[in-house]
Design brief:
Strand order of the largest sheet: 3-4-7-9-8-13-14-12-11-10
Shape: globular
Bound molecules: zinc ion
Number of helices: 6
Structural class: alpha+beta
CATH superfamily: HIT-like
Strand content: 15-25%
Number of domains: 1
Radius of gyration: 20 Å
Distance between the termini: 37 Å
Helix content: 25-40%
CATH architecture: 2-Layer Sandwich
Number of strands: 15
Length: about 325
């Protein structure tokens, strides 16, 4: 019989359809995508005119154009949001509300090498990427009209990737996105009831149960969420209660790099380069939440498509047991 599971933060329901259950190994892709774009704008050797980078690992936040860059940030050529004007506040027209598209949209090129995904980089290289995330996060925090910075990665066409070269996108938004609001509300409600942090409680419980754990190191835990919305969904959480992503110290940056790299490498090798997204959820720039939130990184493999049931009900059917996916990744050690 299938089972309905409720997410303890958002209260969203997920159907774990064990009748139709697929084995983790059934998600393994038969081939890796090998097509290489002929003119990649992010490959150093194909650049005609390198865009002025706002970050390289050697000259943090300075407008530098170091030809030996490893990580760098460039403005998006077709930005969804722009920094041109001052925000004018909410506009109201009858029942409709709008806001001008003020914000930041940057591309963080993760590496010079076109083929090297984050999971294939060295620990030191992943640390540089995280350092760049933090740099951009803090740089844009100074823009008083920005409410939130979403750091995210699309990998694979099915995950919305438009340029193959490994990169992250950063969106500085003039609002707090609704998925984050939903989690903030959930965290606050849970705290009102129990006086504790729901994510800290999840960490404690998952460490006792062990069956959904994918990986852990001293400072981070990676597990498959109980109400996983997709096969192999994985959450990376700092073990100590930490509301702000930007407050990571050096040893936490190292452990985050290790956890992220490890789980992405396991996904890549275990399932043969599946499409996925990942993104960071953290306390909004203007903290009205008294440090209640617990920042985290969510990896969402795009191995299932939504149908009318999901759209109409908001309830997702997941055909794989999160415990089996966790077990598969936990015990998978790439050569
Ligand atoms: Zn490239
Ligand atoms: Zn916590
Ligand atoms: Zn989240």
């Amino acid at each position: 019989m299938s089972e309905l599971r409720r997410d303890p933060v958002t209260n969203r329901w997920v159907v774990i359809a064990t009748e139709r259950a697929k084995r983790p190994v059934d998600f393994k892709r038969s081939f890796r995508s090998t097509a290489k774009e002929s003119d990649c704008p992010f490959c150093p050797e194909q650049e005609k005119e390198p865009p002025l980078a706002s970050f390289t690992e050697k000259g943090k936040s300075k407008a530098v154009d170091d030809p030996n860059w490893v990580v760098r940030v460039v403005p998006n050529l077709y930005p969804a949001l722009t920094l041109k004007e001052k925000i004018s506040g909410l506009n109201q027209a009858g029942p409709y509300t709008s806001l001008s598209g003020v914000g930041v949209h940057e591309v963080l090129v993760t590496n010079r090498d076109h083929e090297k995904e984050l999971g294939l980089l060295s620990q030191q290289e992943v640390c540089l990427v995280i350092e760049a995330y933090l740099d951009r996060y803090l740089t844009h925090k100074r823009n008083s009209f920005l409410e939130y910075m979403l750091i995210m990665v699309n990998h694979g066409r099915e995950a919305g990737m438009s340029k193959e070269h490994p990169h992250a996108q950063l969106f500085g938004l003039p609002l707090v996105p609704s998925n984050v609001v939903e989690e903030l509300i959930g965290v606050r409600k849970y705290h009102q009831k129990t006086k504790s942090c729901v994510y800290c409680d999840l960490i404690r419980y998952e460490k006792e149960q062990k069956e959904r754990i994918i990986y852990e190191n001293e400072r981070f835990l990676v597990f498959a969420p109980y109400a996983s919305r997709a096969p192999f969904e994985s959450w990376i959480l700092p073990k100590r209660h930490q509301p702000f992503f930007e407050s990571l110290d050096q040893s936490e940056q190292n452990d985050l790099a290790d956890a992220l790299k490890t789980v992405l490498f396991k996904l890549d090798e275990g399932l043969n380069d599946p499409p996925f997204n990942f993104y960071i959820h953290t306390t909004p720039y203007k903290d009205h939440y008294n440090g209640l939130f617990h920042w985290h990184l969510e990896i969402y493999p795009r191995l299932a498509t939504f149908g009318g049931f999901e759209l109409g009900s908001g309830v997702i059917i997941n055909t794989t047991l999160p415990e089996s996916c966790a077990e598969f990744l936990r015990n998978f050690f790439p050569k």
